[in-house]
């Protein structure tokens, strides 16, 4: 795949993901308008998120990072038929396994609901459990969608999977604005099932046209393509990615101790997830398949150069954007959410959490890149170990900080755990695989970036305390963000040769 084709794919995927994330934000805005910051909205958020949480934890990301490199390897070293057999056998194996898991979760509905919302009362857990039993139907559907998505990405057709969230969200938005009320959440659960089926159908049609499945069903029942080595790598990657996905789920479970806590946490996180989802989609759908192919050919220099360039771009985007959002948090939340059942107090509480959450943005972006580099090098055990340690730190920090700072402490724990996770990955990548996140930048340059970030946050805090008018805060945020962008670009251009020329992927 040429650099030009990769760049075009990146733009199309970014556009598709932007539309998906914007409709996801519109979905949240709809819930805020109709249900506000209430238990009913906490319930609605749980109902919508359960299938995709389970898919991301137990199937999705891990399946892609293992299946795509293996597809490439078999196409190069064995045959196209072998790659097709792998796809078909994986699809049906995932369908059966996740179907059984969904059934077991329905049987243990009370226990499962307590894990997701530990702060709910027994009556609330019983009500939530009934709705979660409905949306668990969508879990196997979302799981096999991860297979079709990996197939399309492996064939360098990432645009259709990127539009999957757009299709999913459009169905839910229609239901939310037309039928959802505090007493009618069940219809939302069935809408999740329908939206998941629609998303899968669009990808199945595309897979039929881009893949040749001739001979794919040969030796189907022997599952000969799913060898032991592949399964070991899958479960290692599964655990590592699943644990990372668990971070916000664990934090949200702690937040459920406060009335409307899940809603507040979700609103703040959604504004961070919007840019994170765009960056993550481009890396996972466009960059990762290319990195996988480059490392498979043994061209470590080109692979390391690409990693360095992407990391520089991430810093160039995330640091200025984070500082700008910190300044304008309250105006942004007010503009987006303050209508219907969403009050001025809800705006203030959400903005406070957003200002904490935004501090995790560079770490979240870089963690996605770093983990994908490990997986492109067929290394799965190191991310698994680091994710385990990071999750343990998140739980301990949440237990400690909530006693002093309440729900703000839970969000701060999430931020600290995110940075610990990234730093552990970055150090291990350099020590074990001899790949630096950004080549050509030494300790003093990293120190300059850290100093710039903390200086920006300090200035932002002073601006927020002095300026109260929302329009003036917007102007200040744009100006300060622009200054930070220039400063980061100057550091990168002066000390990273790759940024002196044209930036191209």
Automatic annotation (TrEMBL):
The chain crosses the membrane at residues 43-69, 90-111, 131-152, 159-181, 187-210, 231-251, 271-289, 310-329, 353-375, 382-401, 407-431, 443-464, 470-492. InterPro entries: Lipid_II_flippase_MurJ/MviN, MurJ. Involved in peptidoglycan biosynthesis. Transports lipid-linked peptidoglycan precursors from the inner to the outer leaflet of the cytoplasmic membrane. Keywords: Cell membrane, Cell shape, Membrane, Peptidoglycan synthesis, Transmembrane, Transmembrane helix. Belongs to the MurJ/MviN family. This is MurJ-like flippase. GO terms for molecular function: lipid-linked peptidoglycan transporter activity. The lineage of its organism: Bacteria, Pseudomonadati, Planctomycetota, Planctomycetia, Planctomycetales. It comes from the Bacteria. GO terms for biological process: lipid translocation; peptidoglycan biosynthetic process; regulation of cell shape. It is found in: Cell membrane. The keyword Transmembrane helix applies. PANTHER family: LIPID II FLIPPASE MURJ. It is a multi-pass membrane protein. It holds the Pfam family MurJ. One of its GO terms (cellular component) is plasma membrane.
């Amino acid at each position: 795949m040429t650099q030009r084709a990769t760049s075009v794919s990146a733009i199309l995927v970014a556009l598709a993901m932007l539309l998906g994330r914007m409709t996801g934000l519109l979905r949240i805005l709809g819930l805020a308008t109709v249900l506000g910051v209430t238990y009913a909205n906490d319930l609605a958020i749980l109902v919508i998120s359960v299938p995709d949480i389970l898919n991301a934890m137990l199937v999705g990301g891990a399946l892609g990072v293992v299946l795509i490199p293996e597809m490439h390897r078999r196409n190069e070293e064995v045959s196209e038929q072998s790659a097709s057999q792998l796809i078909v056998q994986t699809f049906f194996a995932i369908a059966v396994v996740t179907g059984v898991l969904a059934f077991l979760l329905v049987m243990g509905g009370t226990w499962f609901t307590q894990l997701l919302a530990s702060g709910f009362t027994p009556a609330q857990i019983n009500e939530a459990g009934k709705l979660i039993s409905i949306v668990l139907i969508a879990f196997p559907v979302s799981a096999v969608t991860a297979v079709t998505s990996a197939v399309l990405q492996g064939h360098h057709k990432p645009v259709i999977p990127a539009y999957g969230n757009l299709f999913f969200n459009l169905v839910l938005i229609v239901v939310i604005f037309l039928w959802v009320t505090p007493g009618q959440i069940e219809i939302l659960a069935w809408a999740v099932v329908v939206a998941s089926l629609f998303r899968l159908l669009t990808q199945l049609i595309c897979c039929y046209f881009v893949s040749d499945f001739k001979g794919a069903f040969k030796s189907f029942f022997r599952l000969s393509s799913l060898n032991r080595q592949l399964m070991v790598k899958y479960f290692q990657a599964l655990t590592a990615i699943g644990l990372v996905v668990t971070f916000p789920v664990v934090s949200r479970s702690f937040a459920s101790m406060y009335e409307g806590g899940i809603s507040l946490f979700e609103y703040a996180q959604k504004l961070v997830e919007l840019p994170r989802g765009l960056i993550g989609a481009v890396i996972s759908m466009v960059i990762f398949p290319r990195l996988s192919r480059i490392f498979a050919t043994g061209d470590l220099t080109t692979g390391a150069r690409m990693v360095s360039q992407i990391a520089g771009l991430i810093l160039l985007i995330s640091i200025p954007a984070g500082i700008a959002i910190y300044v304008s948090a309250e105006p942004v939340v007010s503009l987006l959410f303050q209508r219907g059942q969403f009050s001025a107090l809800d705006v203030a509480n959400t903005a406070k959490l957003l200002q904490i959450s935004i501090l995790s943005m560079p770490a979240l972006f870089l963690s996605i890149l770093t983990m994908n580099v490990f997986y492109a090098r067929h290394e799965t055990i190191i991310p698994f170990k680091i994710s385990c340690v990071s999750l343990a730190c998140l739980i301990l920090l949440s237990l400690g900080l909530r006693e002093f700072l309440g729900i703000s402490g839970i969000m701060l724990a999430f931020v600290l755990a995110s940075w610990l996770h990234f730093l552990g990955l970055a150090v291990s990548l350099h020590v074990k695989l001899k790949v630096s996140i950004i080549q050509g930048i030494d300790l003093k340059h990293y120190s300059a970036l850290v100093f710039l970030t903390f200086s920006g946050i300090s200035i932002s805090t002073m601006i927020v305390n002095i300026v109260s008018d929302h329009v003036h805060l917007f102007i200040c945020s744009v100006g300060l963000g622009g200054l930070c962008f220039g400063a980061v670009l100057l550091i990168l251009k002066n000390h990273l040769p790759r940024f002196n020329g044209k930036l191209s992927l």
